[in-house]
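User: Before I run my own analysis I want an independent prediction to cross-check against. Here's the chain; please return only the structure tokens and, at the end, one sentence I can use as a sanity check.
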Amino acid sequence: MLKYVLIGAAALSLAGCATVDVANYASERPALDLAEYFNGTVDGWGMFQDRSGKVVRRFTVRIDAKWEGNRGTLDEQFEFADGEKQKRVWTLVKDGDRYSGTAGDVVGTGHGIQQGNAFNMRYVLQVPWSGWVIDVDMDDWMWRIDDKTVLNRTVMSKFGFRAGEVTLSF
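Assistant: Structure tokens:
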């Protein structure tokens, strides 16, 4: 009997780890076309929350974006409330509703999919932490809210444990 209880608990635990399928948003409008929305200069405001939910960093970002055919470059300039500045340059390649993306602090290639008003990309980001650089799994979601607004939520994890969350408004 205990064996079945443990198997059931394990199944429920794994089901709780399941993520939302981007296909759930296929009919939502307005559609999020990355090449259309992230074209030119886009400003954003964001925060990082630790795993307890405490806001530990606030920032602004200016993205200078351009597309040539199915290849886009997003030059991101971050400025944190404490004055620190960071830069990340993404190269995105679109293939139908799928995207691949690389950046200097991304390990390998990120993979994303866009449907309806939503975009989800997963990648591994190198993050400075206590004098080290650690690889953190990023589950990055964007939703187009209206013609002007995109909301972005990224859950960061390490070894399967939630490390924090980034929230952005563009």
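Sanity check: Residues 2-17 form the longest helix (16 residues).
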